[in-house]
Design goal:
The complex is a heterodimer of chains A (about 260) and B (about 350). With about 260 residues, chain A is an alpha+beta fold. Helices cover about 25% and strands about 30% of the residues of chain A. Chain A has helices spanning about 75-85, 120-130, 185-195, 210-225, 240-260, and strands at about 5-10, 15-25, 35, 40-50, 60-65, 70-75, 90-100, 105-115, 135-140, 145-155, 155-165. In chain A, the strands form three sheets. A seven-stranded mixed β-barrel of chain A has the order 1-2-8-11-10-9-7. In chain A, strands 3-4 form a two-stranded antiparallel ribbon. In chain A, β3 (about 35) and β4 form a beta hairpin. Chain A is extended. Chain B is an alpha+beta fold and about 350 residues long. Chain B has a domain at about 1-55 and about 85-185 and about 260-290 and about 305-330: Ku70, Chain: A, Domain 2. Helices cover about 30% and strands about 20% of the residues of chain B. An eight-stranded mixed β-sheet of chain B has the order 7-1-2-9-12-11-10-8. In chain B, α9 (about 330-335) runs parallel beside α10 (about 350-355). The longest helix of chain B has 22 residues, at about 260-280. The radius of gyration of chain B is 24 Å and the shape is globular. The chains are: A alpha+beta (about 260), B alpha+beta (about 350). The interface between A and B is large, with 159 and 181 residues.
Chain lengths: ~260, ~350
């Protein structure tokens, strides 16, 4: 399960830290195959020529780009191959930044890095990043594709979180929240108190994907020839006056706290 | 007048992915959810040897034509190659009940949220009449340094979400569930070793050399897409391997380089417009829902949009995440945001299915 996806070497100036890349997330989604009901034959994906209606075999498919001016530019596999980055085992550190410098919106997917062989530098690097409150922006080439990521210390280990490209991230600096009349200081204070009253530790294990669970149950029940029943539904209403809503919520939250 | 401007916004606007209400305590803040990230740049299209863009179809194994989607079933493969068939109706029944609420019953320290959980980000814009409670929530979250945690239902799936306030804006980050995250033990990482202080110092020094206060987005450009764009340009001006694209009615929408850029501008403009629109509503007394005059706004716009008259002024009840009711373009935009493979070749129905299955 915990197989190594790729092996590389983190390069920091003259230092090098050999690592193994392993996925830090498991895909738990339930995957269905699509069957054609009449005979239960599995459905296959085909690439079809729109005029002839015939499927084009994969080895004959070409690739290309459509321009805004309504032309299609076909690219040779050779030309595409030339654009591929050079093969390398290096995880290059581009720059080191304070931890809060990388906005969540850049993050894509986390990977664990395991030390490859006896590398005393591995745990030392994790410690150094941790102590200094830093992350490193890195770039590497894996299976002919270039990736960029944040090298991130976690629980004494190193994690590599892939980052989106700049074109995908809307600059938050360009955006401003709504403006309006000065907020009522009393309401501000109450809202902050309400938040404090509702504050607690985050326990991620308490949340589960109920839908996934129900689908799994359905499959299990059907596999053993049973049937299952479903739950009823509910609705909710919104309030009116902001100040009194805050007061009431605050009182309720505090009461709950004192009982707990 | 501000109300006319807001009328425009309702009809012309980028339709939100989800509309609903954030509640904290008894305070409710109606919001619209918009993607915070632009779609990934296009990938290469698949073409026939003559350059015609190919259509993605689903064929029954061994047959020579498309399957009728009405006759297909989902099947789960058990160990041993047996299938359990599950119908669309059954899956619909299992889908979480549609609610339009993000109920913030828990706040946590923003800094404590582990980035491994974050999956996808959305901006939350205040809906009409929500400017003040929206700003109040933002201000309280910023001053306390807290993020809200909740679950909510979107596209017939339940999501765990962190609500974060930054720069006066609320952002929703959908999160992975804990059982989707591998612990170091799951990943079979070796037990941590004692580290030598000197080695730590040496590495810390090496890192120092590369230290900068900020991220530089220029270093994070999509170099492959750039390379393709350059190649395409040079082939285009040389007239090499260039064919005419089929007429619009002969194939599904999508494709041109630049489509995403247009979408991007729309998204940015839309967010800005919404923030401004929300601010302008405070300049006049808040009126009751029933007094709004969508007809006037529609008249100003020429009243040409059929949607304008039927769309509700508030997002509260209309099934915005009812995928079937969306236009194909909207579904396509969603599919693009979700990075669904083969989206450009999908029929409306296929898009709906693909979106439902994603996430």
């Amino acid at each position: 399960m915990a197989s190594t996806i790729w092996k590389g070497v983190i390069r920091i100036g003259k230092e090098s830290v050999p690592v193994k890349l392993k996925s830090a997330v498991t895909d738990k989604s339930i995957r269905f195959r699509i069957l054609d009901e009449p005979d239960g034959a599995p459905v296959e994906q085909k690439m079809v020529h729109p005029r002839s209606g015939k499927a084009v075999p994969y080895d004959q498919i070409r690739r290309g780009v459509e321009t805004e001016s309504g032309e299609i530019v076909m690219l040779d596999e050779k030309e595409i191959a030339e654009l591929e980055p050079k093969e390398s085992r290096d995880i290059e550190i581009i720059r080191v930044v304070p931890r809060e410098a990388i906005d969540h919106r850049w993050y894509l997917r986390p990977y664990w890095l395991a030390p490859d062989g006896e590398s005393p530098e591995y745990f030392a690097l994790a410690r150094a990043l941790e102590e200094d409150g830093r992350e490193a922006v890195t770039r590497w080439t894996m299976r002919k594709k270039e990736y960029q990521g944040a090298l991130h210390p976690k629980d004494g280990y190193l994690m590599l979180i892939t980052l989106r490209h700049a074109s995908e991230v809307v600059s938050a600096a360009e955006l401003e929240g709504p403006t309006g009349r000065e907020l009522d200081p009393r309401e501000k204070k109450m809202a902050a108190q309400l938040i404090e009253a509702l504050s607690d530790e985050f326990e991620p294990e308490q949340y589960q994907d109920e839908y996934r669970k129900r689908v799994a149950e359905l499959i299990e029940a059907k596999a053993s020839g049973k049937r299952i029943r479903l739950q009823p539904k509910r609705e909710r209403k919104a309030p009116a006056d902001l100040t009194s809503a805050l007061e009431k919520s605050l009182a309720a939250a505090r009461k709950e706290r004192s009982v707990a | 007048m501000p109300e006319d401007e807001r009328g425009d916004e309702q009809q012309d606007g980028y339709r939100p992915f989800w509309s609903g209400t954030i509640t904290f305590g008894l305070v409710s803040v109606p919001v619209d959810l918009l993607p915070a990230n632009r779609p990934r740049r296009i990938s290469l299209r698949m073409l026939a040897p003559d350059g015609t863009p190919l259509k993605r179809e689903y064929w029954s194994a061994g047959s020579k034509e498309q399957v009728d989607t009405e006759s297909t079933v989902h099947a789960y493969e058990l160990d041993g190659g047996k299938f359990v068939e599950v119908t669309d109706e059954e899956l619909e029944e299992l889908a979480p009940e549609k609610t339009r609420e993000i109920d913030l019953r828990l706040f946590v320290d923003k800094d404590e949220l582990d980035p491994v959980f974050f999956e996808r980000a959305y901006f939350l814009a205040p809906s009409k009449g929500a400017n003040k409670p929206y700003r109040l929530l933002v201000s309280a979250m910023e001053s306390t340094g807290k993020a809200g945690i909740a679950t909510f239902v979107m596209r017939e799936r339940e999501y765990l979400v962190a609500i974060i306030a930054e720069n006066g804006l609320l952002r929703a980050e959908t999160m992975r569930f804990a059982d989707e995250i591998r612990s170091p033990e799951d990943a079979e990482l070796p037990k941590p070793k004692k580290v030598d202080k000197k080695t730590v110092q040496r590495l810390s020094k090496a890192l120092d050399e590369l230290f900068e206060g900020e991220l530089d987005p220029d270093e994070l450009q999509d170099r492959r897409t750039r390379g393709i764009e350059k190649l395409v340009k040079s082939k285009l001006s040389a007239g090499k391997d260039v064919v005419k694209a089929p007429a619009d009615d002969e194939r599904p929408a999508e494709g041109a380089l630049g489509t995403e850029d247009r979408l991007v501008i729309d998204l940015m403009e839309e967010l800005k417009r919404r923030m401004k629109g929300a601010a302008s509503e405070e300049k006049e007394p808040v009126r009751a829902e029933g007094q709004r005059k969508p007809a006037r706004a529609a008249a100003k716009k020429g009243g040409s949009k059929a949607r304008a008259s039927s769309k509700e002024p508030t997002p509260s009840k209309s099934g915005d995440d009812d995928l079937e009711s969306r236009s194909k373009q909207e579904l396509y935009d969603m599919a693009q945001e979700l990075d669904i493979d083969g989206r450009s070749k999908m029929t409306k129905k296929e898009l709906v299915r693909a979106i439902q299955r994603s996430g």
